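User: Batch of two.

Assistant: Item 1 of 2:
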Amino acid sequence: MSTHAHPPYEDDLFKDTTMTFGEHLAELRQCLIRALMGLVLMFVLVLAVDLPSRIIAFINRPLQGVLVDFYLKRAEQWLEGQLTEVGQLGYPAPPQESLLETIQQDRLIPELYFLDVEQTARYLARLHPEQFSAKAPPALGARDLLDPVRFCQVLWEEHEQGPQAVRKLWKLLDEEARRVVKQVATAHAEKLKPSQLDVLVGALAQLVESDKPLLEPEDYKEFLALNLQVVQLTPAQRLAQQRRMRFAQLEELLESGGRLPLPVWNRLLLAALFPEMIASGPRKQNMAPVVLWRSLEEDPRVSIKSLGPYETFMIWLKAAIVAALVLASPWVFYQLWIFVAAGLYPHERRYVYIFLPISLGLFLGGVVLCFVYVLPIVLDFLFIFNRWTGVDPDMRISDWFSFALMLPLMFGISFQLPLVMLFLERIGIFTVEAYLSQWRVAVLVILVLSMLLTPADPGSMLLMALPLIALYFGGVALCRYMPRNSNPYGEVPPE
C-alpha cells in the first residue's frame, strides 16, 4: 500500500449521509412537487405567448425549403418537354434560357394552359359586341377535321346506300364540296390540297351554322337500334359501334332537357356521325398555348397538410409540451440535483460538475447538427425518388413533426458516446487498448445502430455514422488523456 501524493480531503465524507430513509422520501416528494409546479407554470407561459405556433413554423421551415427546391427542379425538367410540345403545335416557343432565369432567380414556376381562342372570341363578341365588333371565327375550322381523307372516303362510300343520316348530309353539301369528296376518295389521296381543304371546311361550317338542326332524331335511329356483339369488329362495324355510342349520348342529353346553341348541337351531330374524323368540340391542336407563372410561396403543394379535424390541435399541444419541458428543464434538473447531491460524496459531485456540461454540449451539438444540416440533406435525398417516379410529395403534419423531433433526438442521444466510453473504461469493463484493438467492430456497430436509429435511407445513416465514428476516437482520447481522480481516502489501492 502506498500513500497518495495528494493531501486527504478536509471534508467529512459521510457528513451528508445522516438522513433517514423517510426523510429522503419526504425530500424527494418536495423536489418533485417543486419541479412539477415549475413545469406547469412554464406550460402556461408557453401558451400565453403562443410559442407552439412559432415552434411549428420553425420546424416546418426546412421542409418548406426542400419542397420549394423540389418544385423548382421539377419546373426546370418540365420546361424542356413543354417547349417541345408548343413547337409541335406550330406556335413560336419563348427562349428556354429566359424561362430558366425566371424560374431560378424569381422562384416562379411556369404552368402551361391552352386557350380556345375561337371560342373565347365568339363569347366576347356575343357578350360585348361594342368592344369586340370583329367578326367571330366560324364554328368549325380546318383543325377540327381530324382525318379529312378518311372523312371523304367514308362519305363517298356511304352517300348512296349508306345510313340515312349520311345520305342526308350528302344532299345538304353544295356541289363543289361533293366534287372535292369524290376527287379525294376516288384518287386515294393521302392528303388534301389546301384549296380542297378550304372548300370542304367552308361547306361543313356553313352546315353547322345553319338555322336548323343538321339531323333529326329519325335520321339516326338506325344507329341507336344497332347492337353488335362481336369480339373482332371489322373497321365498318367499329365505326357503326362508335356512331351508336355517340348518338346514344346525344339522345340522353335531349331526354335530360339539355338545350345547347344550335351551332354547338350541329357540330356534335356531325362529330357523332364521323367519330375520330371530326372533333366534337375544342381540341388541343386548335388552342393557343399560354404560359402562366405562379409564386412557389403561394403554391399549396409546399404547405403541410392535416388530414383530421384534431390533428393540428394535437400537434400544437405537443409542441407546447415539448417547449415547456425544454424551457423548464433547468429548474427541473436543479430540483433533481438537490435531491441527488445530498447523497453524493464531494468527489462524486465534482464528476457531475465536469461531465454534465460536456453531456449537455454533446446533446445540443447533435441536435443542432441534425436540424441544420442533416434534415435538409435527408429530405432532399428522399425526394429524389419522387422526382424519378413523378409523384408529388404531400406531407402530413403529424408525420413530419414526429420525424423532425425523432431524428434530432436520436442524434443528440447518440452523441453521448464519448461519455459512455469513459464511464465503461472507468468502471473497468473496457480499456483504452481494447477500444483501439476493436475499432473495426466498433465501426460496424455504429453503422448498424445508425441504420436502426435513422430513416431507411443511406444518406441519414452515413450522416449519423460519420460523426459517431469521429466521436468514438474522441472517446478513446478522452479515456487516455483525462487523468483519474485521486482516491477520496487518500490512498491508492494495491495493484
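Item 2 of 2:
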Amino acid sequence: MEDKEESKDESTGYASAGMASNEEILRQYKDLAENQLLRMISDAIPDIAMILSKERQVVYENKALMQLAGETPGRNFLGKRPGEILECINATSEGTGCGTTTSCRYCGAINAILECQRTGLSSTKECRISAGVNGQSFSYDLQVTASPFNFNSNDYVIFSVKDISDLKRRKVLERMFFHDVLNTATGLSGMLAALKEATSPEELSEYIEIAEKASSDLIEDLLSQRALNAAEHGDLQLKISRISSVQVLHEIAAYLSHHEIAEAKRIFVDPFSHAVQIETDPQLLKRVLINLLKNALEASKAEEVVTLGCRVNNTTIIFSVNNPSHMPVEAQKQIFQRSFSTKGPDRGVGTYSVKLLTNRYLKGSVGFESDENNGTTFRVELPLGIS
C-alpha cells in the first residue's frame, strides 16, 4: 500500500466525507466474496472484522459481524462505515458521517484507519464509543486494529474490533478499591489509632469528627460504585420523595467543604437559587451533583471559587456547577465517554455516571459549556416531578 493519507476535507470536521457508489461497493464485495480462502480466514477470526474500501466503507464482513447483525449474510452492512455499524452518536451529529466530525479527531477507530492508509502499516488503538440505540445510550471500550490489505490491485483496510469494556471497567474498579477506598480506609484506621492516644476531651472530639467524615467518604465511594453497576445493568431502583432544591445544594456543599480536594478552595451556593420542592430520587440526585462538584474542585486552583446554583425553567429545574477553569477542546469532545478522564488512566467514570444516571433514571439531561472568560459550567436539567 502506498505511503499516503486520505486527505482531510475542509468541508468536514476531520476526514473526507466522499463515498463510493453503490455499484462500486457491490463490485468490490463480489470480487472479495468469490475468494474461498479469504472467506475461510475471515470467518475464522473470532472478533468482529470487516474489509474497508479507501473511502472507509464496508465491502466485506466476517461471520462474527454477520451474526451480530442477524441479517442476510454479505449485504447488511455493505457501504456503511464502522461508526454507523457501531451506532456511534457522533456519526450523525454533524450530518457528514463517520470519521468526519470534529469529535472524530479524538476517535481511535478513524485514527487507526487513517494511519494505516498513510503508512501502509498496521495500527492498533483504543476507541471509546458512545452509542445511541432506541433512545438509550451505551458506552463501549474497544481495541481496534487497522491492517493494510491489497487484493486484485485494490487497496483495502482490514478493520477488526475487540470489546475490552470489561477489562477497562475492571481496571477502574481496581483503582477505586485499591487506591481511593484504600486511602480512605487507611486514614480512618489512623484516626481510630489516634483516638487511643487522645489526652483531652477537645482532642478526642476532633478525632471522632474526622473519623466520622472518613467513614462517610468510604460508604459514599462504595454506594456510588454499587449504584453505577446497578444502573449499567438496568437494575437500579428509584426511591422517589420530595426534597428542596436549595437544601440539596447546601447538603452537597457541606459534604465536600472539608474534603481534601476542597482544600484552599471555596464552595459558594448562589443565594439567588430558586427554592422549590421537587419529586425525584434525592440520593441519586446528590450522587450526580457530588460527582460534578468533585470534578469542578479538582479542576480549580487554590483560592478559586466553585459556584452551585439552580433555577426553575417552566416544568423543569436546572442545577448548575461552575468552576473558573477552561476545559480543553479534546476533553470537551470526550467528557461523557466511559474510561475517558483528564486525571490519568483507569479513571473516567465520574461524568459518564452523571450522564447515565441523569438521562436514564432521573429522566433529565446533562450538558456543559466552557470558555476562557466564564470557565466551565455543567448543567443538569430535571423534571420537577418524576411520574
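DSSP finds eleven helices and twelve strands in the chain.
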